[in-house]
Design a protein that fits this description.
This protein is mainly beta and 185 residues long. Helix content is 5%, strand content 22%. The strands form 2 sheets. The protein has a 7-stranded parallel β-sheet with strand order 1-2-3-5-7-8-9, with no helix packed on it. Strands 4-6 form a two-stranded parallel ribbon. The termini are far apart.
Length: 185
């Protein structure tokens, strides 16, 4: 298949789209219509000739959950921030070979509750990548190459309940968890 036929798959009829084990030139043949009901998308083990064109996500404005597994996305830039719906609550980018994230890349995702960037090659994370305040409850950055985190990494994340940093290269965490500590009474 060269691409997914947008008009057939992304419409008011379907709320979920799951595609796996496919080779495509491009994810979609054209930009989806704003008249769609898609709230869940799973892309697993997709080989794309072109990189993911985030502009095709512009009109998928009801999207709540985006799961991308074993699909190469080496970098996420401003195009992601500009076109992914702010209504996304769950974002999973797992085994995507992700190495670089743009500054402010998740800042428009004000409803984001769970962010899983597992089994990638990320070295740097910054607080400025996220909304202020952030609604995030779960951050799972397992199995990356993160060496350090800025001291303000978890500030203005009042709902944060779970942080997973296993299998990284972090040797020291100075004051990074200070914002997560309860205030003295």
């Amino acid at each position: 298949m060269m691409y997914l036929p947008t008009s057939a798959l992304i419409s008011t009829k379907f709320e979920a789209l799951m595609v796996s084990n496919s080779t495509l030139i491009s994810l979609f043949d054209k930009e989806p219509s704003a008249e769609n009901s898609l709230v869940f998308m799973l892309l697993a083990n997709i080989k794309l000739t072109r990189r993911i064109q985030w502009n095709f996500f512009k009109n998928i404005n009801k999207l709540k959950s985006l799961f991308i597994y074993q699909t190469d996305i080496v970098a996420i830039g401003d195009d992601f921030q500009n076109f992914i719906s702010p209504s996304v609550t769950d974002l999973y980018l797992v085994e995507t070979k992700l190495t670089r994230l743009a500054n402010g890349v998740f800042s428009n995702l004000k409803s984001l509750i769970a962010l899983h960037l597992r089994n990638n090659k990320i070295k740097n994370m910054k607080r400025s990548m996220f909304a202020k305040p952030a609604a995030i409850q779960t951050l799972n950055w397992d199995s990356n190459q993160i060496e350090s985190l800025p001291d303000d990494m978890f500030s203005d994340m009042p709902s944060l309940k779970e942080i997973v940093l296993t299998n990284n290269k972090i040797s020291m965490l100075k004051e990074v968890f200070q914002p997560c500590s309860p205030s003295p009474r």
